[in-house]
Design a protein that fits this description.
The protein is mainly α. The chain is built from five helices and no strands.
Length: 154
């Protein structure tokens, strides 16, 4: 009779044990789903924050692009033709609008170009105009968080 009692006890315990295993499995699945949802929500929040950052900085980035482009164009015209209007515009950019948006590297390149211009070192202006363009490209790549403005290796 003890065998039948043992079998009876096992048969009574099996449903309870099965229910416990099912419950634990359900908790594990719920935890995995909750973690996945939390990770997805965090990723979405980061994307939204990045989008807001870009929108908030768009006016600055567009102004920077405009003045950087003009500074490189003006430096190029001066280096090739010594155009008086371009020289006047260079100094306006140097002492005015460009200071709003330039980083230290671009400011240094502008200063070097301006020093050479003041000292009449016309043979150096081509090289310095190219250097200004390179530094502008690097600055834009950092500002816009893209390599699109950086010079590609040939």
């Amino acid at each position: 009779m003890s065998e039948s009692r043992a079998l009876e006890t096992v048969l009574k315990i099996l449903p309870v044990l099965g229910a416990c295993v099912a419950f634990i499995w359900g908790v594990v699945q719920w935890k995995e789903n909750a973690d996945a949802e939390l990770a997805a929500a965090k990723l979405e929040a980061e994307r939204y924050a990045e989008s807001r950052r870009i929108e908030a900085t768009r006016p600055f980035l567009e102004m920077q692009l405009k003045y950087y482009t003009e500074a490189v164009q003006v430096a190029s015209r001066i280096a090739h033709s010594h155009d008086p209007q371009s020289i006047a515009r260079f100094w306006e950019l140097y002492y005015g609008e460009l200071a709003l948006v330039e980083n230290n590297d671009v400011a240094l390149a502008m200063r070097q170009f301006g020093d050479a211009l003041n000292q009449g070192k016309t043979t150096e202006l081509n090289t310095l105009a190219i250097e200004l363009g390179r530094r502008v490209g690097e600055s834009l790549a950092k500002s816009w968080n893209t390599g699109a403005w950086q010079k590609r290796a040939s």
